[in-house]
Amino acid sequence: MGTCNGQSLPCIAFAHRIAIRDGKAKENPARHVQHRFEDNARIRFLSADEETALPKAIEAKYPDRMPEFDLALNTGIRLGEQ
Fold this sequence. Notes:
Elements: H1 8-21, H2 48-61, H3 66-75
């Protein structure tokens, strides 16, 4: 669920604001949690050597994970989005 990354806290805070507005809660405990912002500035691509060596290493150690690896490699999915 990559689209939900970083959105849990705002969603919880919103739910508490509605609950307070409707008189079902007295305070928002999520207000004390520090917000983290995703750094999208860094883009990294595998080198040709890495792109050759990595599938071989995954296949050797985790052959049942090759479909996941293939999907991640071909879509550019981030570690936190898996």
